[in-house]
Every structure is written in C-alpha cells, then in structure tokens.
Design brief:
Chain B: Its EC number is 7.6.2.9. Chain B: It is an enzyme of class 7 (translocase). The complex is a heterotrimer of chains A (263), B (406) and C (271). With 263 residues, chain A is mostly helical. Chain A has 2 domains: 43 residues, no CATH class; 203 residues, MetI-like (MetI-like fold, Orthogonal Bundle). Chain A contains 11 helices and 2 strands; from the N terminus they run H-E-E-H-H-H-H-H-H-H-H-H-H. Chain A has a two-stranded antiparallel ribbon with strand order 1-2. Chain B is an alpha+beta fold and 406 residues long. In chain B, 33% of the residues lie in helices and 30% in strands. The two termini of chain B are 31 Å apart. By secondary structure, chain C is mostly helical. Chain C contains 14 helices and no strands. Chain C is globular, with a radius of gyration of 23 Å. The chains are: A mainly alpha (263), B alpha+beta (406), C mainly alpha (271). Chains A and C meet through helix 1, helix 3, helix 4, helix 5 and helix 6 of A and helix 1, helix 2, helix 4, helix 5 and helix 6 of C.
Chain lengths: 263, 406, 271
C-alpha cells in the first residue's frame, strides 16, 4: 500500500523491529528477566533463581497482593457500577456536558492531586476516613469511575437508539427496555470497563501513595518500598506477580465479555 | 501502448482471486472486464495498476515487463469505485496531485489542471472540496485526476457503480464522449453491469470464479455467446435444453426449423426481447388460417391447448408440438410473409412491470425446471398471472450454446 | 437500585414522572461531587495561606519548568515513534502485525512504574549499559515516558488509519507519488485529528505523570506531581502541597479544556 518494493519493506520492517523491540518491548521483558535473575552485571542476567519470586509471594508482600486484589474488586466494581449508571443517565440528557466534565476531572488532574484532595477532605469532620482502608478504596473508585464512564459513554454513542425505540413500540415498559435491551447491548463495553478498571487499579500508585495507611499497602506501594530499600530484584519479582495477576484477571473478564458478545 | 497480462495468477492467502489470466489490450481499444462480484475482474485491474503483486505471470506495458515496478512508476491512470478523492485537498489540488508528484513546473501544472477540469466540465469547481460535490461530479474529478498525468492506459474500476440509475445513464454518455476525446489510450473497464460493457467496450472479457470465460468483440459476444454463462450474464438470455435427432433440433418436442445441430451444444439461447407472446387462441387461429386439410390437426391442437390450460401438461405439450409444427408448416406452405419460428405453449408464472416494458416469466409445458423470460414492450397486452400463452421464438434469434459450467 | 425509578426516565421524551428522573440522574453526579469536586475545592481553600511562599520559591519554578520540559519532550518523542509504528502496522503490514497492535492495547493498562523499574536494570550502575549518570537525568524520565506513552499515541492513530480507504493510497501511488509523498500528503493530513487527540492526551498524561518520576527517584528531576507528594507526605506541609496542586490543576484543566475545544465532537477519543 505504501512501500511496494521488497527491499523497501525489509528496511521498514527492520526499523520497526528495532524501535518496537528496544523502546517498547524491552523494558517489560527486562523486568520479567530480572525477577528470575540472581544478579545482573552484564548484558544478560545470570544465576537463574526462583528465590525472588518466593520472597515476593510470602509475608508482607503476599499481604500486599491480597490488599491489591480487594481494593481492585471493591473500587473497580463500584466504579463500573457508577460509571455505567452515570454514562447511561447522562446520555442524551441536558446534563450530558456537565456530567462529562465532572467524570473526566479525575483523569484530567494528576492522581497525586486526587489523593491529596481525599486526604484533605477526609482527614476532618464530618467524615473521617484517613488512616482506614476505605480512603484507598475511595481513591481507586474515583479514578476508575472516570475510565468506566468513558468506556460506556463511547459505547453508548455507537449503539443505535432504534433498538430501544423498537422495544418500546413493542410495548416494553422503560424499565424493561433498560433491563432487557439497553443493558445487554452495553454488556461488552461494561465488561471491558471492568477489565480496564481492575487492571488500572492493580497498578495505581499516585493517589494510593498519598492516602494509604500502613495497614493497607497495595502491591505498587510495596514494590516502591522495595526499590527504595535497594531490593530491586525482589521488586521486579513482585512486579511480575502484579503483571501475572492483572493478566489473569483481565483474561477472566475478557472471557465473560466473550460470552456476553456471543448472545 | 498495449497492456498484456500473461498467465497472471493472484492468491490472497489461500484464496485464489485470479487464475491463469491472459489478456491483451491494444492502444485505442476499450476492453471491459465483465463478471459478477468475486469473479476476479477487480483483481486483474489491480494487478495491472500494480496494487497487487501476481503470484505468477507477467504484466507488460508497451512490451516492457512492469510486474516488479511499484504503481508510482507505471504511469497508469486509475479511477476506483468510490473515486478515492483526497478529502483534504481541493478539486484542483486533487487533479494536480500527480503532476506535482512528477515535479512539473508550476505554470504547467496550472495549465494542465485547467485543461483537465475543462474537459470534464468541472472548470468552475476547482476551489471546492470533494465533499461539496455530488457523486457524478466526484467521478468527473477522479477521471480528470487520472488523465492529468497523461497516461497511455486508463483503468476504470466500476466507475458508475456508486451512482443512481439516471445519473449512471448520463455518465455513460460522458464516458463515451471521453473515449472520443482521448482516442489514443487503452482503457480497461471493470464492471458487473452488462449494459455499461456493451455501451463502452470494443471487446468484452467475461469472467467467472477467478477465470476468464470468454473474450470477443462486444457485438459478436452478444449475438453468438460461446458459453451458457456468457449468454445468461450478458443480456440475461433464456437457455432451453434441446434434443437432437436425425439432423433436426427440437425444443420441448418442437422442431426448430433451419437450425443445424452442433456437437456439444445442447442449449438453445434466446434473448427475452426476441420472444413474442401470443394468446393460445391466436395460435389456433393462425393454424386454422391454413389449408383445410390441416384444419382437423389444428383443431386437435386447439383442443390440446385447452387441455394444457387445464393442467394436462404432458399430453398438451406433445399435442401442441404437433400443432405448432403443423401451423408453421402450413404458413410456410401458404403465406411466405410469416417468419420461421418455434411456438411453445406454457403459462405465465410472474410478471414485472418495468415502465418501458414488462418482463413476463413463463413456464414451458414439458420443460419442468426451465422458466422463460419474455420482454413485452409497453402497449402490448401483458397476459395475466396463470394465463396460458404461446411463446413465439423466431429462429433467427436462436442460437445454440454448450451446456456446462464454463 | 430502584429499577422503577431508573426506568422512568429511560425514554427521554417521556414527560411523565419527572420526579423519578432526578433519582436516576443525580446519584452518580453526587458521588463525583462529594469525592472529587468537594475535595478539590477544599484543596484550593487550604492552599490560600501558602500561595505567596510557594509560587515565589525557586523550587516551585524549577519544578514547573521541568514538568513542562519533560512533558513536551516526551510527547514529541511519542508522536514520532508512535506515528512510525502505527504507519508500519497499518500500511506496511507484516505477519503478526495484528498481534503487535493487540500488544499495544494491552500496554495501555499496565502501570507506568514498570518501565522505570526496568531502567534500573538497563541503565543502572550494575546493569546492562551501566550508564548510571543517565538514570538520574531528566532524559531517563523522558525516555521512560516515551516508552510508556507511545501506545497512547498509537491507539487513536491505528483506529484512524484503519478507517482510511486503502484505495486512496493506491491511487496516490498510481499518480506517481512515492511512499514519502503519500505519507506526507495523503496519510498525515487525514489522520491529523487522531494525531492531535493522541498527542494532546499524551501531553496531559505526561504533565500528570507520577509513577515514573517516583521510581526513577532522579535527584535533579522534581516535577510538580512529585513536589505535591514530597510536600504533602514527606514534609506534611499540606498548604504548600495544596498550592502546588492548584497550579497543577489549573495547568491540566486548561490543557484539557483546550483539547476538548480542539477536538470538538470527538470527545470519546480522549477517553
């Protein structure tokens, strides 16, 4: 289409492989390799070991994994609920622009600032949440609501409104139209919002680091603490745990989405 | 300059889009590639343009092998189905695109763009954007853009398919005019519409399932289709199975006078507009108008016709065969003015009014699976659904084609 | 969730049961109001006492300049790399190009600090390249951000390029245009909205980026979000942190507003 000669294609593909491999792919591969390396003093890691991974899955680090999973499920799923609700309520109403702007606020400002805001707002009366796990869950909820809203709102724009009209013309009450027609048609978007929310929540660091209490350390916070102490290999191992967990969760949600799409 | 395709084969993954395709188009000639969708006609055109690389075979322009040249170095004008005008460029800049790519001097670009837009009647639209033009106007710009680089070959891929019916007829006229204005170039015209192919092409290449079926001058292909597929695709001919015995050809038991049997050709081909419909009574009247000796036979025929109307298909058709032969023989003997024709009896199973004409679909008694389409010009009476009719097939409009998938 | 109440307003044109409508529309907005808007307003109020001190300080001005420098450099890098990669995937496709495109989509959901973590192995004092000095420079942050945010540029570009009719590229080539000319005069003008959307989003996200800066812990590289963290968590200077946060909010929301205006109806692409 663009490059017609074989030699031209070969050159372009080589450049692509170099750029994509070195710039985009390599960093992620290096983290995975480091997780299993006893030491790394040359071009390639040496002393293959599972020790780091064992450390990353024991004691405090294992607790972090559990904390992260709980936070991701509570924050992420609530976020999907409210994001979907918000997007459907705003769709086509005269509040659409205001709702859009409000829901995009948490993405538009740095997560650190969102965390600072929660810290300032909930360290005082009437609601005192500072020092509890709930402030972490709320931070994740707030950030993920924005993404869920965006995903569902985009899907709503693609859904043909005539389905709902046809359902109504067949005598379905508005509640039935919502439950039997509009929601099922949004199911793929909703489950993809859930996947995105859980994945982003698992890796969230900016807001979390502002608000987390010592009793509720998520995986990324633990990983940061490890690197701060110079235990970079264990940190890498724990990052691999994080990656693997995220991938598994997203794959599960993806299968749910596949089933939703088949119907 | 001639375009030659030699044994060109194109595979996309496991699907074969074009198989062993040979074609030669001379300068000053228009060849239409005609076929249903998926027949490989567009692939053949893309191979000439250089958009797809043949898996096998060579492509030559003016004798030079261009198989390995990128499209940018072939100098071929291409107009695609949706025109692919660059939406962000004004009409004049679209037309100038190829000239600027060739780094022509500014003054020459301006002059040539002006000439081209003038030629297609779009001179006052140079400052417009493509989205501000109608489909027909976009098409003219696309042609102007393709011709601006002064190609010796012009490829047109379904150029009228995106237009509505009236506009298509107008643009067909414009394309004929264009053909006269640039007589020296070779044109390959891809279409699925037989009327476009007949109107524009010197020769028509009929394609099917990635292969070339027939290629011949347009009139020849229409008058004497070499294959059943070409016969039905080009002009929607009726194909009726025939039987051959002792030097005669019969269809549904009726002998076709004057048609000699040919080896391997077992289908009678006749165009819908060549067939005339008569009410059953007229057939018996024509027969009865003959000599008295034949009267009883004719009466028998008429009686049989009545039987046919009542649904006694087999008996009726055989009796009618006799009647038709008798009738033809009688007229041949008595009045020379009546033409040689085969008369088949049947009934109407569908009728579509098309304004200038109506197309009536009839079943022939004795030919269970075959329906015959007949064009009835406006002003003639269209028989009612279910009515019994006699189809008159003039022998000079009949030809034989081989059966089979090719 | 009272389905009756929700349902009452599903058909927007139904005028009856207007009171139910509020129960359907308001709760999500109240949630955002309480959890986002109210805290940000408090941040603005808290910041007032520290306003003069912070804005006048060299520390703040350095961080502001650094933040913008890093964000702009990273965005430019992402645009160049992302455009190249997207063009190859879209228009010079190779077997497996779709897998790469899928990989790019996956990367959007990964945490950014992974890249920073890997840099300690690649460029660290004991790592592959042993370019220890590089790791503490702002350029390490820029490189890490280019790595992480290139997919954000690629995604809208890949979508826009898949909508570009292949025939346009073919016809341009048949008119004698070489690859470079086709790219410049046909492809890029038509994917420009996607380029603006992807670039704008990347600029916004790199202005706000925190994880990479935190993990690289580069001494000379203090950005505004980093400063908010240091002041708020390490030094417990809430008013100071709030003052910087207000500047950051103004910067981000200003950019966001400009982007939304520039992109008009294509809001969805910012998500």
């Amino acid at each position: 289409m663009l490059v017609w000669t074989r030699s031209g294609k070969a050159i372009v593909w080589t450049a692509f492989a170099v750029v994509f491999g070195l710039l985009v792919l390599l960093p992620f591969l290096v983290v995975i390799a480091a997780a299993f390396a006893g030491s790394w003093n040359g071009v390639l890691p040496s002393d293959l070991t599972g020790e780091h991974l064992r450390q990353a899955l024991s004691g405090d680090e294992l607790a972090s994994l559990s904390v992260s999973l709980q936070t991701a499920f509570m924050g992420g799923l609530l976020a999907v609920l409210f994001g979907t609700w918000g997007a459907m309520a705003a769709h086509g109403s005269r509040f659409a622009r205001a709702a859009d702007a409000m829901h995009h606020l948490p993405i538009a400002v740095p997560s650190v600032v969102v965390g600072l805001g929660l810290l300032v707002a909930f360290s005082r009366q009437p609601v005192l949440l500072n020092g509890t796990k709930w402030i972490v869950v709320i931070a994740h909820l707030v950030l993920m609501v924005a993404f869920s809203y965006g995903t569902v709102a985009a899907a709503l724009q693609r859904v043909d409104p005539s389905y709902a009209d046809v359902a109504a013309s067949l005598g379905a009450s508005p509640a039935r139209v919502l439950w039997r027609v509009r929601l099922p048609m949004l199911l793929p978007a909703i489950s993809s919002a859930a996947g995105l929310s859980v994945a982003l929540s698992m890796g969230e660091v900016g807001a979390t680091i502002m608000v987390y209490p010592a009793s509720w350390r998520t995986l990324p916070v633990s990983i940061f603490a490890l690197t701060d102490r110079g235990q970079t290999f264990v940190a890498a191992a724990e990052a691999v745990v994080l990656l693997a967990t995220t991938v598994v969760l997203v794959l599960i949600l993806d299968r749910l989405r596949g089933r939703a799409a088949e119907r | 300059m001639t375009v030659q395709l030699e044994d060109v084969t194109v595979h996309f993954g496991r699907t074969c889009a074009l198989e062993g395709f040979d074609l030669s188009v001379a300068a000053r000639e228009t060849v239409a590639l005609l076929g249903p969708s998926g027949s490989g006609k567009s692939t053949a055109l893309k191979a000439v343009a250089g958009f797809v690389r043949p898996t096998r075979g060579r492509i030559r322009l003016g004798g030079n092998d261009v198989t390995d040249l990128p499209p940018a170095r072939r100098g071929i004008g291409v107009v695609v189905q949706q025109y692919a005008l660059f939406p962000h460029l004004r009409v004049a800049d679209n037309v100038a695109f190829g000239l600027r790519a060739a780094r022509k001097p500014k003054a020459e670009v301006t002059r040539r763009v002006g000439e081209m837009l003038e030629m297609v009647g779009m001179a006052s639209y140079g400052r417009r954007f493509p989205r501000e033009l109608s489909g027909g106007q976009q098409q003219r710009v696309a042609i102007a853009r393709a011709l601006a680089i002064q190609p010796s070959v012009l490829l047109l891929d379904e150029p009228l398919a995106a237009l509505d019916a009236q506009l298509r007829a107008d643009m067909l006229g414009e394309l004929q005019k264009l053909r006269r204005e640039v007589p020296e170039i070779a044109i390959v015209y891809v279409t699925h519409d037989q009327s476009e192919a007949l109107a524009l092409a010197d020769r028509i290449a009929v394609m099917r399932d990635a292969r070339l079926v027939d290629i011949a001058p347009a009139a020849e292909l229409y008058a004497a289709p070499p294959s059943a597929f070409t016969a039905s695709f080009l002009g929607g001919a009726n194909l009726l199975p025939v039987a051959m015995d002792e030097g005669g050809v019969t269809v549904a038991g009726a002998v076709i006078p004057g048609l000699k049997p040919e080896e391997g050709k077992s289908l009678l081909c006749i165009r819908p507009h060549a067939i005339r419909l008569e009410p059953p009574a007229a057939a018996s009247a024509a027969a009865a108008g003959g000599e008295g000796v034949l009267g009883s036979e004719a009466l028998g025929g008429a009686g049989a016709l009545g039987g046919a109307e009542l649904g006694g298909a087999e008996l009726g058709s055989e009796a009618l065969g006799g009647a038709a032969m008798g009738g033809a023989g009688a007229r041949g003997a008595v009045e020379d003015a009546v033409e040689d024709a085969v008369r088949l009896v049947g009934r109407v199973v569908a009728a579509q009014w098309r304004g200038a004409s109506s197309q009536v679909t009839c079943l022939v008694d004795g030919l269970a699976e075959v329906s015959v389409r007949v064009d009835v010009p406006a002003g003639r009476r269209v028989p009612e659904f279910g009515a019994g009719v006699v189809m008159v097939l003039p022998v000079e409009a009949c030809s034989l084609v081989p059966a089979g998938v090719g | 969730m009272a389905v009756e109440a929700l349902g009452a307003t599903v058909v927007v044109s139904t005028p009856r049961r207007r009171d139910g409508r509020w129960l359907w529309v308001l709760p999500p907005l109240v949630l955002i109001g309480v959890l986002v808007v109210y805290p940000l307003v408090l941040v603005a109020i808290e910041s007032i006492p520290a306003w003069g001190d912070v804005v006048g300080s060299a520390e703040f001005r350095d961080a502001l300049v650094r933040t913008v420098q890093i964000a702009v450099s990273s965005t430019v890098g992402c645009l160049v790399v992302g455009t190249f990669l997207a063009v190859v995937i879209s228009f010079v496709p190779f077997p497996g190009a779709r897998v790469v495109a899928g990989l790019v989509d996956t990367m959007l959901a990964l945490p950014s600090f992974l890249v920073a973590l890997s840099f300690t192995f690649i460029y660290g004092t004991t790592g592959i390249l042993r370019a220890g000095g590089f790791l503490t420079s702002p350029w390490a942050v820029v490189l890490a951000e280019v790595t992480f945010y290139t997919p954000f540029v690629m995604r809208p570009l890949l979508a826009a390029m898949s909508r570009l009719p292949r025939a346009q590229l073919d016809v341009a080539a048949s008119l004698g245009a070489g690859p470079w000319r086709v790219l410049r005069q046909v492809v890029l003008p038509e994917v420009r909205p996607a380029l603006v959307a992807g670039g704008g989003l990347t600029l916004l996200l790199t202005l706000n980026e925190f994880g990479i800066v935190l993990f690289l812990g580069a001494k000379g590289t203090t950005t505004l979000p980093m400063l908010v963290h240091t002041k708020g968590i390490v030094m417990f200077d809430y008013p100071g942190a709030c003052a910087i946060a207000v500047v950051q909010i103004a910067l981000s929301l200003g950019l966001y507003a400009v982007l939304r205006m520039a992109l008009g109806g294509r809001r969805a692409r910012l998500d």
